[in-house]
């Protein structure tokens, strides 16, 4: 199939230029200033669109197999495509947990059957993510993007050390959910002003950064390539900054909600509950500084859908997790790029360039590359309405917030994974 994207503004390496993009057999054939005459092409007029490389999200929860009442590979990847993502990496807190090749095959079968974009699953670090016994890392290694026990921190340092040694031998990343469970003591939101004022039990920042500190010591010892999930605290940012200066092979991610919210914005509603929790303004500013100086490498959504009932129990009793695939780019563009806090180039770096480089996935906008592309109308504004989401999960702290940036089109491997209604085609 030939697809011609006509009169679209192509954003590459910090510059924007109106071009026509011809896609054939899943690849970008040409980028030209003049619209080529191509017989038999499906032409899409995109004069209001800005074209980017398809975004890469290295931290999502697609819930299948095992929890398809929350999300499926089909609904989750369609939501991702609508958010501009062409590559996503689902975490292994599934049923069965992908802790062996046999268990992983169940997830791979769901991906093969229903995904509309590229999906690169994680293998678990430990059997059933229980932290007691290493998973079958060797047999899963050729089929996974990295190893993680996300949803739980590996509590035993010796177990994490052995996992790092095994992962290093296999040439794989350890991707760590850092949470020292001994320090949480029943806390479920940030241990800050809001928790104290409203009688909630607080989760201290040390529950995150203490385990990051432990793991960095293990990285020094093992030489393992290491990536920290959903960084939320200023202490973690500083630890990673120093580790990078030291030359350790370390990267990290944060999420949109930690970059644009602080705990003074919490409400008595389950859509404000996630793990780690939204922390202080000081933490938020440290994360932004980390983005700007390169300490924080990338933004991931930690898209974590639950049923409406599971998220209806208030801050204390609701399940942890919010959805984010359909709001990530619009929220960050609106809150950080439009006010001049980040450049558009930096936003693309943290949503495509850096995760693509670290995890070895994604495709650039250049002739001959796979056609993994997304197009946004950056001037379109609208209120965030979860009822409109393609994801089965509807819980977001951004409900009602006016954002700029509407996804017009996403191509994954040259196939249309998402196209907004009313687009001009011929």
Helix percent band: 25-40%
Indicate the low-confidence ranges by residue numbers.
none
Order of SSEs, N→C? EEEEEEHEHEHHEEHEHEHEHHEHHHEEEE
In the CATH hierarchy, the architecture of the largest domain is Alpha-Beta Barrel
**What Rg is obtained from the alpha carbons, in whole angstroms?**
21 Å
Overall residue-averaged pLDDT value:
97
CATH top level label of the largest domain? Alpha Beta
Question: How much of the sequence is in beta strands?
Answer: 15-25%
CATH topology of the largest domain: TIM Barrel
Q: Report the span from N to C terminus.
A: 14 Å
**Alpha-beta classification:** alpha/beta
The count of helical stretches stands at 12
In total, the number of domains comes to 2
Task: Please explain how this structure is put together.
The protein has 426 residues and is an alpha/beta fold. It folds into 2 domains: 2-51 and 369-381 and 400-425, Urease, subunit C, domain 1; 54-359, Metal-dependent hydrolases (TIM Barrel). It contains 12 helices and 18 strands. Strands 1, 2, 3, 4, 5, 15, 16, 17 and 18 form a 9-stranded mixed β-sheet that branches. α7 (234-246) packs parallel to α9. The protein is globular. The mean pLDDT is 97.
Give a quick rundown of the structure.
By secondary structure, the chain is an alpha/beta fold. The chain is built from twelve helices and 18 strands. The protein has helices at 73-82, 101-114, 137-140, 157-170, 193-198, 206-222, 234-246, 256-260, 281-293, 314-317, 328-337, 344-359, and strands at residues 2-12, 15-24, 27-32, 42-45, 50-53, 55-60, 85-90, 118-119, 174-176, 189-190, 202-203, 226-228, 250-254, 298-299, 373-383, 402-412, 415-419, 424-425.
């Amino acid at each position: 199939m030939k697809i011609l994207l006509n009169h679209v503004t192509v954003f590459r390496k910090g510059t924007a230029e109106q071009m026509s993009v011809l896609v054939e057999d899943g690849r970008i054939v040409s980028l030209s200033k003049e619209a080529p005459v191509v017989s038999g092409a499906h032409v899409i007029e995109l004069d209001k669109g800005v074209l980017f490389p398809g975004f890469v999200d290295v931290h999502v929860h697609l819930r299948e197999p095992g929890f398809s009442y929350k999300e499926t590979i089909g609904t989750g990847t369609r939501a991702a495509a609508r958010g501009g993502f062409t590559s996503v990496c689902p975490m292994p807190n599934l049923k069965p947990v992908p802790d062996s090749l046999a268990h992983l095959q169940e997830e791979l079968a769901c991906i093969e059957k229903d995904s509309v974009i590229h999906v690169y699953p994680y293998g678990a670090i430990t059997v059933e993510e229980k932290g007691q016994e290493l998973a079958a890392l060797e047999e899963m290694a050729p089929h996974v993007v990295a190893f993680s026990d996300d949803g739980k921190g590996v509590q035993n340092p010796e177990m994490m050390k052995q996992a790092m040694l095994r992962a290093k031998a296999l040439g794989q990343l350890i991707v760590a959910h850092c949470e020292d469970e001994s320090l949480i003591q029943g806390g479920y939101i940030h241990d800050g002003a809001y928790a104290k004022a409203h009688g909630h039990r607080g989760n201290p920042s040390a529950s995150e950064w203490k385990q990051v500190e432990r793991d960095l010591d293990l990285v020094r010892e093992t030489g393992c390539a290491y990536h920290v999930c959903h960084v939320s605290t200023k202490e973690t940012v500083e630890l990673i900054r120093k580790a990078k200066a030291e030359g350790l092979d370390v990267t990290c991610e944060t999420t949109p909600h930690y970059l644009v919210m602080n705990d003074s914005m919490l409400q008595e509603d389950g859509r404000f509950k996630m793990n780690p929790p939204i922390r202080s303004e000081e933490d938020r500013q440290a994360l932004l500084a980390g983005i700007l100086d390169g300490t924080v490498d990338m933004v991931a959504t930690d898209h974590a859908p639950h049923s409406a009932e599971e998220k209806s129990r208030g801050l204390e009793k609701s399940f942890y997790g919010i959805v984010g695939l359909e709001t990530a780019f619009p929220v960050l563009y609106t809150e950080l790029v439009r006010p001049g806090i980040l450049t558009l180039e930096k936003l693309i770096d943290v949503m495509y360039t850096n995760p693509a480089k670290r995890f070895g996935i994604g495709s650039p906008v250049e002739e001959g590359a796979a056609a993994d592309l997304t197009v946004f109308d950056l001037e379109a504004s609208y209120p965030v309405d979860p009822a409109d989401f393609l994801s089965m999960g509807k819980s977001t702290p951004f409900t009602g917030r006016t954002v700029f940036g509407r996804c017009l089109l996403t191509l994954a491997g040259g196939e249309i994974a998402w196209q907004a209604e009313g687009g001009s085609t011929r």
